[in-house]
DNA sequence: CGGGCGAACCTTGTATACGTGGTGGGGAAG
DNA sequence: CTTCCCCACCACGTATACAAGGTTCGCCCG
């Protein structure tokens, strides 16, 4: 892996994990020293993250981690519903048997992680969920769907949505995944799209509830 | 304007205008010499264009101008219809009087350019059209709509759609713009969304007709 | 004592130099 | 004559050096 790609991966992970809080300054020299590379690949990573919306860059004034307000999260979920729904509909007529099998494996793994002894493993579930959605995007065999969505899903608050799910919501999410696979297997675009819509809307509802209840509990967002 | 931004603007213009044909190699050193800057800002411009989908980059193997097949253009127009429709719906409840006035001015200017003596000025119309759509995106006051669409509209074939319009199609397009402004002024999201859908679908139909009729007449696209 | 101005420092933007992987051409062997 | 391998060249990736704009702290003036 190139230095630039490594820097990109490290920075993105640092941002979505909350290590770099929203609004935090990202100094090129500092990051370069921390990553053991020069400023050049760090700059490239920062510009890439800027293109994806994770950082904001002002000329001659450096880069900061982006922040998101409640209204912007609303926009994000509406656009996600549109684009992910489109992707799911496309996938319904293009998915292969091998991909369906993989999706079912992922469902299995997620349900296992959800029923783990001593509470659900939210980190693992989140990773598997990302993988499942990525698999649907691949099945859509579209050059654009996945790219458009990176700006919409790689957001700290969104990535950690699963940590907010209550048991009932978690079960509902698993149900959505299973139903989505069923719709894809049946080759029914409208069904797949509707399920994906519901899936995204459910996630949105959870986030809205949490943000409304404890607006001060999420220091990584809300403030600009 | 910084060198990097200048390089980006020049390269993008060169690509969408067809000066850099689809599939053409983009050598950093050559471009740097042509633009009178060093490789550093050229690299930054290339990566940015890559993020927007206009160029494809393979590690250690350089950058090439992207190409688009008929199926990919179909995807693009479907996604454009979704996202631009969403933007129009948002704009309907957020547009200001000043913005409405500006939109009407743009309509006026476009109709003037379309009725110019000695045939319509397609280049001017195209520019005004871009400006009008950008104005709608601004009116939507969304952080994401405009960004998502750059990957979908800044494409050589799409930008030059107006050159393909026949008089009747041109008139229809003007009508769409007027109706869109009317829907925005009425504050009716569904109406605005529907008009924008029709608008994008009409453009798609024109492109499909032309590509189907003379697939060899557009050397900038189709082949990979 | 407070506000505005200036200079030093710090960070970003750009240029240039160096290392490395990929590509193509030429030579030798079959 | 053809094919395969090796070497040289060339472009990309990264590091480093230099230039220029921004920020901040301190000083001077009101």
| Secondary-structure element order of chain A, N to C | HEHHEEHHHHHHH
Largest interface: A-B, 25 and 25 residues
Distance between the termini of chain A: 34 Å
* Percent of residues in helices of chain A: 55-70%
Question: What is the subunit arrangement here?
Answer: homodimer
Strands of the widest sheet of chain A, in order across it, are 1-3-2
3D structure, described in words:
- Two copies of one chain form a homodimer.
- In chain A, 68% of the residues lie in helices and 4% in strands.
- With 224 residues, the first copy, chain A, is mainly α.
- Chain A folds into two domains: 3-65, Winged helix-like DNA-binding domain superfamily/Winged helix DNA-binding domain (Arc Repressor Mutant, subunit A); 70-214, Four Helix Bundle (Hemerythrin (Met), subunit A) (Up-down Bundle), CATH 1.20.120.530.
- In chain A, strands 1-3-2 form a three-stranded antiparallel beta sheet.
- The interface between A and B is medium-sized, with 25 and 25 residues.
- Chain A binds a DNA duplex (30 and 30 nucleotides) through α3.
């Amino acid at each position: 892996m190139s230095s630039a790609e490594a820097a990109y991966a490290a920075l993105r992970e640092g941002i979505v994990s909350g290590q770099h809080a929203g609004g935090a300054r990202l100094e090129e020299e500092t990051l370069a020293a921390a990553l053991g590379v020069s400023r050049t690949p760090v700059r490239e990573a920062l510009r890439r993250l800027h293109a994806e919306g994770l950082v904001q860059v002002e000329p001659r004034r450096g880069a900061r981690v982006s922040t998101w307000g409640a209204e912007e999260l609303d926009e994000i979920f509406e656009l996600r519903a549109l684009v992910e729904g489109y992707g799911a509909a496309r996938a319904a007529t293009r998915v292969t048997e091998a991909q369906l099998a993989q999706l079912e494996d992922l469902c299995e793994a997620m349900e296992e992680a959800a029923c783990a002894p001593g509470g659900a493993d939210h980190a693992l579930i989140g990773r598997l969920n990302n993988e499942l959605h990525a698999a649907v995007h691949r099945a859509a065999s579209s050059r654009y769907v996945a790219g458009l969505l990176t700006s919409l899903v790689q957001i700290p608050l969104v990535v950690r949505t699963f940590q907010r799910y209550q048991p009932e919501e978690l079960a509902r999410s698993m149900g959505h995944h299973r139903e989505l696979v069923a719709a894809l297997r049946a080759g029914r675009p409208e069904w797949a799209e509707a399920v994906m819509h519901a899936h995204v809307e459910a996630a949105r509802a959870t986030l809205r509830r949490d943000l409304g209840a404890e607006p001060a509990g999420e220091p990584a967002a809300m403030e600009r």
